[in-house]
Amino acid sequence: MTTVAAIVVAFDSAHALPECLGALRADGVPLIVVDNASTDDSAAIAEGQGARVIRNARNEGYGRANNAGARAAQSEYILIVNPDVIVDRGAVAALLDAARRYPDAGFFAPRIVEPSGRVFFQPRSLLASYLTNPTGKLVLPEGEACAPFFSGACFLIRRDLFLQLGGFDENIFLFYEDDDLCRRVADAGSALIYVPQAIVRHGRGRSSTPKPGRIFKSRWHQAWSRAYVSRKYGLPNPAPAIFAVNAVKSVAAGLTFRRSLIERYGGSAAGALAFLRGQGALRQEGLS
To answer: Does an H or E element contain 198, and which?
Structure first.
């Protein structure tokens, strides 16, 4: 059994994969790429980088695809990595070192640096209703620290813990699956650790090539998933408000003839309405 394997879910990610996989390969990390029925050369590029490729017949969504990669891995740890993330040299070793020093922890998050140089650190979530200062000013920890929530763009987790928890919630096609996983890791009594000496660079939204309709789909799932995880954890249902606000905005956007705005607000309204009608995200994508 190897120590760690990286899992990268690709969906029309040919433009981003060479840098992402090349950096991991340079650091000696075994690669598993789960291709969600890409229409570009994602799978071929991954194979060219020496990755083991799992080819899905259709787009299974982010969580389901990562779960397939985790089941296929033969490693003590798995490193979940978005295609638009470039892992700095030594970052994986730093995460593994932290994992050895904190045996009671199960989830290890690197420092995520955006193209602007901003460090993305957002340890709050709608699922953290217990936090006493949820809208307070965020301050970066000066060193390693515990936090309740981390981004799903890149993290290391003990594979046995991930599988025991059932992996990502497969009812979610996209969005909030990382919030949900972090909540379940913490509820299981395992700490989540920020490891700032492990640095990764995130392209933010470059995972898939932009295409007409993708904004609508993205916003649909964002609205639906927010309502789903709210119900899952007994929080107030945000779907009525999301629908009401975005339905009005989508009508106004229609008067501007700006496709991006119409897709944005229309997608949010449609996702919220689908949740209110009892429609699942998987059904929306033709999945069982």
So the answer is: strand 191-202
Q: Residue 35: helix, strand or coil by DSSP?
A: strand
86: left (phi over 0), alpha (psi -120 to 50) or beta: beta
Count of CB atoms within 10 A of residue 136's CB? 9
DSSP alpha helices (H): ranges in 36-106? 42-48, 62-72, 91-101
Q: Indicate the range of 44-58, 65-79, 112-126 predicted with least confidence.
A: 112-126
Structural contact between residues 46 and 71, judged by C-beta atoms closer than 8 angstroms: no
What pLDDT digit, counting tens, does each position of 197-234 carry?
Answer: 999 999 865 555 556 678 999 999 999 999 999 999 99
Q: Encode burial over 46-84: b for 16+ CB neighbours within 10 A, e otherwise.
A: beebebebbebeebbbbbbbbbbbbeebebebbbbbbbb
Rounded Cα distance between 165 and 188, Å, is 8
Q: Say yes or no to pLDDT of 3 above 80.
A: yes
Nearest to 274 by CA among 100, 89, 251, 266: 266
Cα-trace Rg, the chain: 19
- The pLDDT-based confidence of 35 (bands split at 50, 70, 90) is very high
Place of tokens 């779907």: 239
Going by C-alpha positions, the residue among 107, 162, 99, 152 that lies closest to residue 125 is 152
Which tokens sit at 205? 């939204």
**Tokens 């040299």 sit at which residue?**
89
Burial class (CB in 10 A: 0-12, 13-18, 19+), 245: middle
106-121 pLDDT tens trace: 999 999 999 999 999 8
Strands 119-120 and 105-113: antiparallel
